[in-house]
Amino acid sequence: MRGADPRVVLGLHRSRHERRLLTGALDLGVTALDTSTNYLGFCSHRVLARTAGDLLPKFTVSTKVGYFPGPGGVEHSLDPVRLHAAVEQAAVDLGREPDVVFLHNPEHSLREAASEKQDVLAQACTALDDATAKGLCAAWGVASWDPSPMLSLIDTTAPTPSVLMVRAGLLVGTRTLDAADALIEAWDLGGGEVWGMSPFGGSTSASVWGRIDPRVFLRDSSRRSPVQAAFRAAYHLPGACSVAVGTDEPAHLGQLVDALASEVEERTVQEYRSLLRDRSRSQPP
């Protein structure tokens, strides 16, 4: 068994939640799980507790609140009462308090808020901070697919998250990367408090991965596959201590864990980000 590597988080977004995946992850030293109240048709927590309740104490578990069952299927809400209740229910359904609860894609509701968007975000953050203070979770954070709408809404008097999760990797645009960097600075988060997600933009079989070779970002490029190189580079786009990645195959997870032994060429990363910014400036508004 490998030593536990906290930098890899097994994401359950599209997972079948099979027990063999969790035991395989533990064998690889992957001891962090990330899920959400709305995963697996709002059944993720209960399925995890039923199929692998004895394994969960071996993992640190993060989940997310913000999406709820609604008349039309799924709705998003930053209502502080609903968020607090969702954190309570998560602990009940999992059979344990989560280690981290993320405010899930707050930009979804912020875009639709008619006014007082800063207050809406501050109240949502306060709800999760209160839940943490009551022992319903060990810490709270923000998970954002598009952090840009939050940049003008940071309230220095409101509670600040302990962790920020954002999209990471070569398919993330400069607008999102720059917004993530700005939030990291505004919330005074260190490198150990930033997580990446969706390092392959949804799929390793997308056609884009056949047109580029991410191994240019590695110092030992000959030892790794393009998929491994793309995963390793994701820790630097933006800078993150952990990356949540989804798979149902322990063998695939093992390949990604192996990639962590590679070193990334920082200069290549900076050159790539400069190219992204130059391209963004040349695009018509």
Structure, described:
The protein folds into two domains: 1-33 and 192-285, no CATH class; 35-161, Alpha-Beta Barrel (TIM Barrel). By secondary structure, it is α/β, with parallel strands linked by helices. Helices cover 38% and strands 16% of the residues. Mean pLDDT is 92; it is low at 1-6. α4 packs parallel to α6 (117-133) and α8 crosses α9. It contains ten helices and ten strands. The protein is globular, with a radius of gyration of 19 Å. β4 and β5 (73-76) form a beta hairpin. It starts with 7 loop residues before the first strand and ends with a helix. The chain has helices at residues 19-27, 39-42, 44-52, 80-94, 107-112, 117-133, 174-186, 226-233, 250-259, 266-282, and strands at 8-11, 32-34, 60-65, 67-70, 73-76, 100-104, 140-144, 163-167, 194-197, 242-246. It has an eight-stranded parallel barrel, surrounded by four helices. Strands 4-5 form a two-stranded antiparallel ribbon.
- Which strand-content bin applies to the residues? 15-25%
Morphology call:
globular
User: What is the CA-atom radius of gyration, in angstroms?
Assistant: 19 Å
Overall structural class, as computed from helix and strand content, comes to alpha/beta
Short description:
It is built from ten helices and ten strands. It is α/β, with parallel strands linked by helices and 285 residues long.
Helices and strands, with pairings:
Blueprint: E1 8-11, H1 19-27, E2 32-34, H2 39-42, H3 44-52, E3 60-65, E4 67-70, E5 73-76, H4 80-94, E6 100-104, H5 107-112, H6 117-133, E7 140-144, E8 163-167, H7 174-186, E9 194-197, H8 226-233, E10 242-246, H9 250-259, H10 266-282
Parallel strand pairs: 1-2, 1-10, 2-3, 3-6, 6-7, 7-8, 8-9, 9-10
Antiparallel strand pairs: 4-5
